[in-house]
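Write out the bound-state structure for protoporphyrin IX containing FE.
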Amino acid sequence: MYSTLLVLHSIFRWLVLFALIFSVYKAFKGYYANSPFSAIDNKIRHWTATIAHVQLIIGMLLYAESPIVKYFFSNFTVSLETIDLSFFGLYHFLLMLAAIIVLTIGSAKAKRKATDKEKYRTMLIWFSLALLIIFISIPWPFSPIVNRPYIRIF
Ligand code: HEM
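---
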């Protein structure tokens, strides 16, 4: 169960990133070209938020199963000073949760805006902020703080 969730979570990170980057690109292009907010743009907005929500659910299940998180809570005071443990026990979880909340608010606000320009603008601002938070909270292999591989295979 744990290793399956870890692989799924690792793979889904790429879906989240590609969907968000594509959404931000479409919002940027649409905003500056004064394009109509099409049904496809609306689907992109909707599916980007949905992919992020699936990653949130996988992340929560992983959080419940992870031996790193279990160790973090059973040795709380010491773990707070160990970066690998506090990263997954606290920072990664809180920052990713914040990013997904930002993304969800942005998606809901964009949906309710009256004009197409406002829809693109709202999506551009909120999705870019979510992308930034997600990007800095991923344990990249090149990170000097906490690093994990680019991908895990079943
Ligand atoms: C867009 C959101 C997220 C992205 C892109 C993301 C990405 C990642 C990546 C790339 C890893 C390393 C996987 C590996 O070792 O191969 C990871 C680990 C982990 N993530 Fe996330 N994550 C997200 C959200 C969350 C959330 C919301 C939670 C908790 C509720 C969470 C909990 C964890 C845990 C516990 C681990 C470490 C598991 C372990 O090594 O035992 N993640 N995440």
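---
The mean pLDDT is 96.
The two ends are 12 Å apart (CA to CA).
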